[in-house]
Write a structure and sequence with these properties.
The protein is of the alpha/beta class and 240 residues long. 36% of the residues lie in helices and 18% in strands. The structure holds D-malate (MLT).
């Protein structure tokens, strides 16, 4: 199957929400939202509700049974005051999240997901479920858009490298002529650095910030390839 179109946006505010209509969207936020979402669901969370700001998070929380939901998220990498958890995948243990609905509010990743809501299908991707995402994309007949969360309007190296891994493996290493420039750049980045994911990501801007905040373990963890064979999907505002 040769999809006629694959495009990539390097940060969540780079695309218009109507551009995803009728398309298959892959959202990537390696450090750490899309990685944490996979961990939370693997550990038994019922669903993850992405929100774009604290106001929306509060409104949703009002209508949920307080014993059944968790308010989670970060601002600039640190847990938001008053929330149950931050956004470290290490916090989303089975004991913490099993049977709970997680309301997730993060600096970039949850916004990238909520802004993709008009797409026909939205897959949540990270290195942790990379091959499972590739297999989903090989099965779609729709045009594909890869949305990297980035960091506050800037490109994130780790998101682009993960996008490149997905695009390279989707194309079995032979770049489709119909690829848009962003997809070509990510493909080339993976060709260059695909064998050194952990070391390259560890030197990225956000990884450097996370290390300074005491989250060094999250970085190596989020670079583990194919820990999961499941692809979370956004359906009716909930990731399951
Ligand atoms: C983001 O939304 O940019 C990330 O999830 C930030 C983080 O978890 O440190």
């Amino acid at each position: 199957m040769n999809t006629p179109f694959i495009d990539l946006f390097s940060h969540y505010s780079a695309f218009r929400e109507d551009e995803v209509k009728d398309r298959t969207v892959v959202v990537i936020d390696v450090l750490r939202a899309t990685s944490s979402i996979s961990v939370a669901l693997a550990n038994g969370a019922k669903s993850v509700i992405p929100v774009s700001d604290m106001g929306e998070a509060g409104k949703i929380a009002q209508n949920l049974d307080p014993s059944r939901f968790l308010l989670c998220g970060e601002k600039d990498g640190l847990k938001i005051e008053g929330y149950h958890h931050g956004n470290s995948p290490m916090e989303y243990t089975a004991e913490a999240v099993a049977e709970k609905t997680i309301i997730l509010n993060t600096t970039n990743g949850s916004k990238a997901i909520t802004r993709s809501g008009n797409a026909e299908e939205v897959f949540i991707a990270s290195f942790l479920n990379m091959t499972a995402v590739v297999n989903k994309l090989k099965a779609t007949e729709r045009e594909i858009m890869v949305i990297c969360a980035g960091w506050k309007g800037r490109l994130s190296l780790e998101d682009m490298l993960c996008a490149g891994a997905i695009i390279y493996n989707l194309m079995d290493g032979k770049l489709w002529k119909t690829s848009r420039d962003g997809a070509k750049i990510a493909f080339g980045l993976y060709q260059k650095y695909g064998k050194n994911i952990k070391s390259v990501v560890s030197d990225s801007n956000h990884a450097t910030t996370l290390k300074s905040l005491g989250y060094e373990k999250d970085i190596a963890f989020c670079c583990e390839v194919d820990m999961f064979d499941y692809v979370p999907e956004l359906k009716d505002g909930m990731i399951i």
